[in-house]
Specification:
There is one protein chain. By secondary structure, the protein is of the alpha+beta class. It has a domain of about 180 residues: Chloramphenicol Acetyltransferase. It is built from 8 helices and 9 strands. The strands form 2 sheets. Strands 1, 4, 5, 6, 7, 8 and 9 form a 7-stranded mixed β-sheet that branches. A two-stranded antiparallel sheet has the order 2-3. Helix 3 crosses helix 7.
């Protein structure tokens, strides 16, 4: 039989903590990787010149998230009464700052695993313009109503709207979100706020399996072979729902995410890859 001994003279903080919190039941798991961004930086410069886009790290990470959900469909899941259900499309939600960092919203792009980087960039650019112009068709009216709702009412109302949208499949606009409004993954950037490390919280009503947050791109010492060089390093912080993403799957997601960003040509669609090969820079002939 297990025996326990009383903690003698516990501190005031210990007593306050024990009185304030209940036993943990939060399924959040955190993970982090650093990526040498040198290859991605050169890739973006060439892609923009070739296809007339303005790619950012967020576009690359979002495309990678879509491919990872296709590669690991069990990460693209939701928990239902009858068990764990797999989504049939790799939809990614991109967070958008609509008001100088004070009001975050976003846009879900459907089937990102089938979209080109150019399509992702153009779709998000149009979405950002609409949202910042006050035309947030997905969440705009719901946000305005929520601002006028007292907190005591907002709590049960949020749960009710989440149940209606996610469990019953009812489109709650303009009061709340449409069904599965966030998809299987969320991508957000904390770079503009100067974060070196930061893990976003899983929002319960999103029912998203994992969130990837991009930190500020910084030059750091990096081991290359047997030497250390300064390299641009992108830190990615990932928050996962342990009900969906276990340790093995979370490790695979982070490992493959790093591999995709280290060799970003893997993010190209078949059509892009053909054009990419045709436009490959030619090497100058070597002279004896």
């Amino acid at each position: 039989m297990t025996r326990f001994a009383a903690l003698k003279s516990p501190s005031a903080f210990r007593i306050l903590a024990a009185a304030s919190w209940r036993a943990p039941n939060d399924p959040t798991v955190l993970g982090m990787i650093d990526v040498d961004y040198s290859a991605a930086s050169a890739f973006i410069a060439r892609y923009d010149a070739e296809f007339g886009t303005h790619l950012t790290p967020t576009h690359l990470v979002g495309r990678a998230a879509g491919l990872l959900m296709r590669r690991y469909p069990e990460a693209n899941a939701v928990v239902r009464f009858s068990g764990i259900k797999l989504r049939q499309a790799a939809d990614v939600f991109f967070m958008v700052d609509s008001g100088e960092g004070h009001n975050l919203t976003g846009r879900k792009l459907e089937a990102v695993d089938t979209m080109s980087l150019g399509d992702i960039e153009r779709s998000l650019r149009a979405s950002v313009s609409d949202i910042r112009a006050g035309n947030d068709a997905t969440f705009g009216k719901g946000h305005e109503q929520l601002r006028r709702t007292p907190l005591w009412l907002a709590r049960p109302l949020t749960k009710l709207m989440s149940f209606a949208a996610n469990r019953l499949g009812i489109d709650m606009r303009p009061m709340g979100p449409p069904p599965d409004a966030f998809g299987g993954a969320i991508v957000t950037s904390l770079a503009r706020f100067g974060f070196e490390t930061g893990f976003p919280a899983l929002v319960p009503f999103s029912e998203t399996g994992f969130i990837v947050a991009l930190m500020e791109l910084r030059d750091k010492p990096w081991v290359v072979g047997d030497r250390v060089e300064p390299r641009p390093v992108l830190r990615l912080c990932c928050t996962t729902d342990h009900r969906i993403v276990d340790g093995y799957l979370g490790g695979a997601l982070l490992k493959d995410l790093k591999a995709l960003l280290s060799d970003p040509e893997q993010l190209l669609t078949d059509a892009e890859r053909a054009a990419w090969a045709d436009s490959a820079p030619t090497r100058a002939p070597q002279t004896a």
